[in-house]
Each structure stands twice: as structure tokens, then as C-alpha cells.
Amino acid sequence: MKKGRSAISGIGPIFVLWMGLGLMPPADASAAVPTWVNPKEAIGPDLARFQQGKKELTALEKEEIRKYGYTALEVMTYVDSNRETRGKPGFTVYHRCINVTGRGGNIRDSGILQKYRFYYPNYGSRIKQEGIKPGGVEYRYISLITGPAETKGDTSMRTYYLAAPGYRKDSDNWQYSKKTRKVTRNVAANRQDEGMMITTRDDDEGREPWDEDHRILGEDLYRGNPCLVVESVHRAKGYYLAKRVIWVEKTNFLDLHEEQFDHKGHLFKLLEKDWFQVKPSNYWFPRETNSVKLPMGRRTIHQTPIYIVHEGPMKDDYNMQGIRKQVPWVQVDGVLPPVTGSASLPPEPQPRLEFWERMGLKIQMRQ
């Protein structure tokens, strides 16, 4: 989708891979690659509205269908199906993470190659638990760090398991260090923790649609894209967010903008995504996820210029032997311009004050 200035826009002709940035794949690639289908058709309203044992619509949902054509749960299910971490063909990504300690603060960036494999056919089978059951392996990825120098060459493998209401098995993470030449098992971080980034695991890996109560607040035009605006409140007691509000592009169901509120009602984190379609499969992927935390202006920016959807079966390296391989399987040097200072970063996301004013609400920022 065409949106505001991106730090990735400076990529030059050094790109020689198929990345959905205007370059064409090999002529015979399309025959082997499954193609994206709009979730409205791939999943459909019956499955999206009635899932995880849900039997009937609420009065609010009936009103949402009358007014908008969808329920909020349905919309957020379609959004969830477009996530990187949801069922699709396997793929390889090159990813750069930029962390900024605050406005005018230190900037640190790191690079990583990741290769994903999914163990169920599609998102519909995930909802219906066909071919996969709660606790079954949902997907794995292998990572190879490409920078900074002190960790370059380290590898890891993470395994994720299918969750269901009342049941969650956390991910397993195994890491191979080039210094010690040993494989160690790491304890997964809490899904609500930020760690060295301002995005949490829930921000990056996704929340299950049934983990939250949703309602459609209204409609808005975000950077030229007609959107449904959805409020989501997590059901877990003591969850770190009071609510989050998501701007969902209405045609393809892409989350373009998100505002997160603490339990004092203050807006404290904003995220925005720049989406594009990878050819020839047409799967949507976020080229850039840009986030800022108030009031200090701490930032995490995920930039992902390379997405390669795998054509047919890939060699199964998702094991202890596979994570010992430290040779990059894709050339990534020079595919992104260097980070030279704050001027090379995209602008901070801004709150949609115009929308809140139309709603008759005054938003308070965390101070």
C-alpha cells in the first residue's frame, strides 16, 4: 500500500532478489507458488463470526453487521490471517531492527535472516483445528544474525504451538553461539514484556482474535485508505494494555495504524505499518513497522525489504543440525541504506486526533 515516507525507499538497484518491490520473479515461478486470497473469501463470515464455540451474535454484533457489514471479531480475524506468523507458504525474510533510546538518543540496529515453515494447511484449518490441534506445532523459524559484529553468525530455532481458549503452550527457543559452539535452550520472554525493544511479543507475534473483546468505533480515512476503526480490550486480568485501537484497511484487511492506551486512559504507544504484496503469490507482508513510545520518544522500527515465498518443499533444516549452519542462504549486504542518524529514520507515527475529535473525545498523552 502506498503510504508516507519510508526509510526503505532509498533501496537502489543492488536488489537482485524477488522482493515485491517492482522486480519480477523467475518466469516459471508462478506455477509453483500458492496465491493469496482475500480473507473475506478464504475464511468467510460464518467461520470468522462463529469460532471457538461461539453460537450466536450479540446485539452489538448485529448492529455492526447492519451498519458496517462485518462484526468486529470478524474484521480482526481477517486482520490476523494476514500476519506473518499465520498459516501461509513457507518464506524467507531479511529483517533489520532499529532501536532508538529516545529523541536525540542513541541508535542501534541489528540484522537477521529468518526462514519460516508452517505445519498446517491454511488459516481456516487453524480456526477449525483441522490438521492441527491445540499444543501441536504451528510453525518454526530458523534465524541467522547478520549484525552487529559481536553476535554475527549466531543462529536460533524457535517452535510455536497452537493455542486455544484456556490452553497455551509457550514457544521453545534453541540458540547456537559461534563463540561457545554450543546449543542452549532459552526461556521465552513474557508475552507482555518489551525487553530491548518497545514492541512486546504480543505486538510482534500477534494476539489471538478470541483473546480480546472487539467493537467497531467507526470509519476513518487513513493516508487515503478507507478504514474501519476497531477497539480491542484483552480479556486477561491485569493485562498491560487497557485497550488498543486499530485502523483496518477495508479492502484487504490490513492493520495500518494502532494506538495503545494504559490503565490511566493515556495514549502511550503508536504503531504503523507499510504493507506490500510479494509477487507472484500476492501475499501481503509489512515492509516496515514503525513504533514510538511516549513520552520519551523511544522507538523500534522493523524494516523488512526481502520476502521470498518458498516455491514448493524446502530442505528441512528446522532441527538441531540446521541451527548449526552459519552460512547465509540469501545475500543481504547492502540491501538497506545505512542508518546514519535520526535524519535517516522515518517520521514518528502520530495519533489520529481528527478521528477522536469527530468522536467527541479528547485523547490524553502519557506525560
Automatic annotation (TrEMBL):
Pfam families: LolA_like. Gene3D superfamilies: Lipoprotein localisation LolA/LolB/LppX. Residues 141-303 form the Uncharacterized protein TP-0789 domain. It comes from the Bacteria. Keywords: Lipoprotein. InterPro entries: TP_0789-like (IPR033399). This is Outer membrane lipoprotein-sorting protein. It comes from Tectimicrobiota bacterium.
